[in-house]
Amino acid sequence: MFLENDDKTLVPNPHSYMNPDHLKLFYFIGRLVGKAIYEYILFDSVFSVIFLNRILGVPNTINELKYADPTLYKNLMLLKHRNDVADSLNLTFSVDETAFGGTQTYLLKADGDKIEVNESNKIEYISLFCNYKLNKLIEKQSQAFTEG
Fold it and tell me: What is the rounded distance in angstroms from the CA atom of residue 141 to the CA atom of residue 122?
């Protein structure tokens, strides 16, 4: 249900959808945590700032990415300051996610697989990519947890 980040905090597993009842389980876990808070019971586990932001309805940005994936954060910062984006990287406004032996393409914006990332739109790409990774992937899980 949860993955552990490099900083030993928990974030919902974006691939929890493989369990058809995953949203019911997040709802149940949310109820348990709510009851524990009400009863002043402390947990040994710590939720990631990314997940806590989603619970509070605060959108995550690239600043929170360094907590979830420091390597990806570093690479996006390199992309931000790079001058030859279109020539060397061949990026588009789409993300290929590989899970359980299959690859699925997600569009970051309409016709994103046809829009090449270049010098003029690389900041938009970084923003949309971070929104996808930090907000969209765990949106349903976070909502079910919060409802619980």
Answer: 29
The CA distance from 106 to 94, in Å, is 5
- Residue 78 identity: L
Residue 9 tokens read as 């905090």
Place of tokens 């348990």: 32
How many whole angstroms separate alpha carbon 118 and alpha carbon 92? Answer: 9
Give pLDDT tens digits for 72-108.
Answer: 999 899 888 877 776 667 888 888 888 777 788 898 9
C-alpha pair distances (Å), 100 with each of 26, 104, 106, 132, 137: 21, 11, 16, 20, 16
Of 91, 80, 87, nearest in space to 114 by CA: 91
CA distances from 29 to 3, 57, 75, 144 (A): 15, 18, 34, 9
Distance of CA 84 to the CA centre of its chain: 27
The pTM assigned to this predicted structure is: 0.85
Distance CA 5, CA 20 (A): 24
User: pLDDT digit string (tens) for 7-52?
Assistant: 888 999 888 888 899 999 999 999 999 999 999 998 877 899 999 9
Strands, E assignment, 48-133: 94-99, 102-107
